[in-house]
Amino acid sequence: MNTSKPITIGENVWIGANCVICPGVTIGKDSIIGAGSIVTKDIPEGVIAFGNPCRVQRKITQEDRLAYSEGMEKE
């Protein structure tokens, strides 16, 4: 018997190429999912997660946000 459940993706989430997000998973806002990840469990907000199975690697820091915004200004 196959069942399906909705997935929930928060605001401002980046999902890399070739990811699989399993049914019922929630990805919190402002998170990043690395390419090729298989997301089997909920991911909290504001983290970088990747792998098979997908695991949280670290929180996104204010330094990360500043580095990103500085890079955008140079373009």
Key terms for this structure?
alpha/beta; two-stranded parallel sheet; UDP N-Acetylglucosamine Acyltransferase, domain 1; 28% strand; 75 residues; 1 helix; four-stranded mixed sheet; single chain
Regions with little confidence, pLDDT below 50 for 5+ residues:
none
Number of domains in the coordinates?
1
Into which percentage range does the β-strand content fall? 25-35%
If strands are numbered along the chain, what order do they take across the biggest sheet? 2-5-7-8
Amount of helix: 10-25%
Mean pLDDT comes to 92
- Please count the beta strands (DSSP E, at least 2 residues each): 8
| Architecture per CATH nomenclature, i.e. the level-2 architecture | 3 Solenoid
- What does the radius of gyration come to? 14 Å
Q: Oligomer, anyone? A: single chain
So, the CATH homologous superfamily? Hexapeptide repeat proteins
The H/E string reads EEEEEEEEH
Question: In CATH, what is the class?
Answer: Mainly Beta
Q: What report would you give on this structure?
A:
The protein contains 1 helix and 8 strands, in the order E-E-E-E-E-E-E-E-H. 12% of the residues are buried. It has a single domain (8-74), classed as Hexapeptide repeat proteins (UDP N-Acetylglucosamine Acyltransferase, domain 1), CATH 2.160.10. It is elongated. With 75 residues, the chain is α/β, with parallel strands linked by helices. The protein has one helix at residues 62-74; strands at 8-9, 14-15, 20-21, 26-27, 32-33, 38-39, 47-50, 55-59.
